Structure formats: structure tokens, C-alpha cells
Amino acid sequence: MNVVEIIERKLDQLLMEPSNSGLINEIGVLLYRMKDWKSAELYFQKAYQLRPKNHDIVYNYAAVLNVQSKWKQAITIIHHYLELVPNDEEVMEKLADCYYLIGDYHLAEIEYGKLAKYRG
Q1: Which UniProt keywords apply (predicted)?
Q2: Minimal CB count within 10 Å: which of 44, 76, 107, 111?
Q3: Residue 88: how many CB atoms within 10 A of its CB?
């Protein structure tokens, strides 16, 4: 079964379970893997609205924003993720990178500093 068929099956399931955040997230992951960033973002955003404390969903939402260069939006979601998973070095670095990419070098320096302290 190819990815499109898998997505079609999951969309059929979604019709019967429209509030299933896990299923919505799975569809987003498949779309992300296909590099359909805009569609993946819509699914991750919906899953996030349904379950904002699920760290996998929050991570995926931040990742799709980041890959689309939506750094200001990603920063907000990354902060939320780090409230849920405070010691994720990869995400701490992505936060600093996002600040750097929007030109906020002061906050980037602060976040890189936190990361350096954490890594010891």
C-alpha cells in the first residue's frame, strides 16, 4: 500500500472519528513525509488544538512551522513544547536558531547560552 492509499484510509477513519487527535497527527506525519508542508501544518494545528499537552503533537507542529521558515510561529510552539519537555537539547537549539533567523540576536544568544550551560 502506498502513502496516498494509507492517507485515504486514515481520512476515511477520520470521518468517523473527527476528534481523534492521534489520527489527525498521523495524517500530518504522512503529509510531512511527503513534503506537503501546508497540508501537514493544517493537520498538526488541528491536533494541537485538540491536545495541546501531547508532546509529540506539539513537536510535530513546531517542526512543520520551522521547515516552512515560519520562525515566529515556531518560537511560540517551541516554548510550549519546552514547558512539556524542558530538557530536549535538539529543540532548545531549534529555539535559539529561530531567534537567530528572525534577527533577534540577543534572545538567540540567551538561548544558546542556556543550551551551553545545560550541556555543561
Answers
A1: TPR repeat
A2: 76
A3: 16
